[in-house]
Amino acid sequence: MNVLQSPDPSPLNCLITGVGGQGTVLLSRLIGEAAIRKGMDVRGSETIGMAQRGGSVVSHLRIGPGSFSPLIPAGKADLIIAFECAEALRVLPFLAPAGNMLTLDRALAPAAGSPQETAYNSKKIIAYLKNVLSKRLTVISWEKLLKRCGSPKVSNVALLGAAISKGFLPFSVDEAAAVLKTRIPPQYLDMNIKALFSA
To answer: How many other CB atoms sit within 10 Å of the CB of residue 124?
Structure first.
């Protein structure tokens, strides 16, 4: 079920996951500000890893009435946006029974030869997620994203555009673009706007 069609007055719980340096925290700020501009209550928090490039980062956003804590309980995330599929798998227990997940199809493996390297098989991870989530999973090709946007640095904004186009977020792409114009340095604005509208 589309999260925007629910009559439930409880908040829209959005969990964003990735690794340090991918723009996870910026994406949560963009979503939060766009929602605030629409007059919605927003609570949010980031947990672990953001100070360490390559470390796991999880941002919690709760949009709308009824949120007393900034952290999303397990099994209550209406939407998970994942910058890579291994992190998507890691936070799967947070997803609500009717929740949606949007993920890139790549997995950032640890260093070659490490014990964890073999576990980071993106095709197997995506196959597992598809089996578990079926139509509630949206997979975005990393290679196609790079061709459309031209830079990995705008993958966070491209994911934002994809989430909006699927109807997962309570604002339009034009409203998100207005936030970008206040948050992104002028020299990077055009490429980010292009990424936003590329979904």
So the answer is: 13
Q: Which domains does the chain have, with CATH numbers?
A: 11-107+122-196 (3.40.920.10)
Measured CA to CA, the distance from residue 89 to residue 109 in angstroms comes to 13
Please, are residues 187 and 150 in contact by the beta-carbon 8 Å criterion? Answer: no
108: left (phi over 0), alpha (psi -120 to 50) or beta: beta
Helix/strand/coil percentages in the chain, nearest 5: 45, 20, 35
Q: What is the pLDDT of residues 104-154, one digit of tens each?
A: 998 776 555 555 555 678 899 999 999 999 999 999 998 888 888 888 889
Provide the residue count of the chain. Answer: 199
pLDDT of 142-167, one tens digit each?
888 888 888 888 999 999 999 999 99
Q: Which amino acid, 91? A: V
In three-state form (DSSP H/G/I as H, E/B as E, the rest C), the secondary structure along 175-191 is: HHHHHHHHHCCHHHHHH
